Amino acid sequence: MLRFAIWFLFLFLVLLYADMLFYSVTKSQIALDKLYTSRYDVLRERRYCMDIQLKRGLLDVCVLTAIKNQESYGYKIIKDMKPYMDMSESTLYTILKRLELSGMLTVRTAEHGGRLRKYYHITKTGLSRIEEFKKEWREVMSIYQFVIKGDLQ
With a threshold of 0.70, does the pTM exceed it? Predict the structure, then answer.
């Protein structure tokens, strides 16, 4: 697990460092719709793309966190996350389906304004995943600090 985390951190830092050196990237340049775009297509366009698996894990935890305190529906999840990141509906619903299949959230359907709406509720497994992510992130940040410390010398 540590080797896996180090590998992802190394890849992330290399891409981030290359981005800082060569490209000026803004949030609007990288749409989360390109989640499944190959890294080669993005680099050819001279844009930075985080490793797909790393991004996927981050987005999963972000969605779980958005519904951590109360159940919610798709549009509200997007609205709640908007101050932190832009996410399209297609990306969100792909993530929600994956999280449902993995048992991290449950879905109920209720009528609202004459239409059916799906409400998503986090499960104990989903809450455990958030806590696991926090522990993993501390480890990743520790490795990041080690790498940065090496650059300063």
Answer: no
